[in-house]
Automatic annotation (TrEMBL):
Disordered, as annotated region: 155-200
Official protein name in the record: Transposase IS701-like DDE domain-containing protein
Superkingdom in the source lineage: Bacteria
Skewed-composition ranges (Basic and acidic residues): 181-200
Length: 200
């Protein structure tokens, strides 16, 4: 269900916090998304979506709510890349090293996707069985140790090593790391009260 030419009343918050004068009216389409049932059996509440486009057809509305549902896939993918593959774990010192690490993580995630047909479903007791070829990257990673011996490997096994002793305890760092600008130049006030207090 969708309503066209609905406009929200803007307030002086977030992007409009520094705006002076009359605020504009922004037309768009309001979409009400309802589902028949939820997996747990509880009563589903409607979800309200907003699109800044007007004059949408039924197919356009379908694209909007389907894109909203796809965000769960993106959130779970980012969560898996961070927690399972360790995207944010290393303390990298340069932007170039961060870019290289990101590309390595993308390559590892792609490799897991490509091994979907070869991996067995090693599921936890509380997880539902998955159809063949429909395993998630986290489940494929679980079974990767069984697949790896059968893959062609262009390199030899890594030599075992242990980390060095590092800097003696209590000594100062004589070579501090270079700090890079992250791009944020101005700190904006977080509330209307703070903005009014900072105004001359």
């Amino acid at each position: 269900m969708a309503w066209d030419r609905i406009h929200p009343l803007l307030t002086t918050r977030s992007a409009w916090i520094g705006h002076t004068g009359e605020l504009p009216s922004i037309e768009g389409t309001l979409i009400r998304l309802e589902v028949d049932h939820l997996p747990g059996g509880s009563d589903p509440l409607p979800v309200w979506l907003w699109s800044s486009a007007t004059g949408l057809s039924g197919a356009d509305v379908d694209v909007r709510w389907q894109a909203f549902l796809r965000r769960f896939d993106l959130e779970h993918t980012l969560r898996m890349i961070k927690q399972t593959l360790g995207w944010t774990r290393p303390k990298l010192r340069t932007p170039d090293a961060g870019d290289r690490w990101t590309w390595l993580i993308i390559a590892a995630h792609t490799q897991l996707r490509l091994l979907r047909q070869a991996a067995a479903d090693l599921r936890r007791p509380w997880e539902k069985p998955a159809e063949p070829g429909r395993l998630t990257p986290a489940r494929i990673r679980r079974g990767f140790r069984n697949v790896r011996p059968h893959l062609v490997c262009p390199t030899r096994a890594p030599d075992p090593s242990c980390p060095g002793p590092g800097r003696p305890l209590g000594s100062e760092n004589r070579r501090p790391a270079t700090r890079y600008d992250v791009g944020k130049t101005v700190k904006r006030p977080e509330s209307i009260t703070e903005r009014n207090r900072l105004r001359p």
